[in-house]
Specification:
Layout lengths: L1 E7 L3 E2 L8 H14 L5 E6 L2 E4 L3 H9 L4 E8 L2 H8 L1
Parallel strand pairs: 2-4, 3-5
Antiparallel strand pairs: 1-5, 3-4
Helix pairs in contact: 1-2
């Protein structure tokens, strides 16, 4: 089951380092300021912890804009699914 929820940015772990395109982040910042975040990021909820593997540009844009929360598409998963994402 998937739910949409606003989650505090500081509670989302980003275990895989990403190299973001700074021009794309800047464009997203402008868009988010003008019309808000249109597409939630996807996160896994594993044992009460949130893990983000996609939406890295949106995540960085919201962080740089000083947002406290970000709209997320949350999917509960067992630790085995998290391990597959980390492999």
């Amino acid at each position: 089951m998937v739910r949409i929820e606003n989650i505090p940015l500081h509670k989302i772990r980003r275990p895989l380092p990403r190299q973001n395109d700074q021009a794309k982040v800047a464009a997203l910042m402008e868009s988010i300021q003008a019309i808000g975040l249109q597409e939630p990021i996807d996160v896994l909820e594993v044992e009460g912890e949130y893990y983000g593997f996609s939406g890295c540009h949106r995540y960085e844009a919201c962080t740089r804009l000083g947002h406290e929360t970000i709209r997320c598409r949350v999917r509960k998963a067992p630790r085995a699914v998290l391990q597959m994402h980390l492999a």
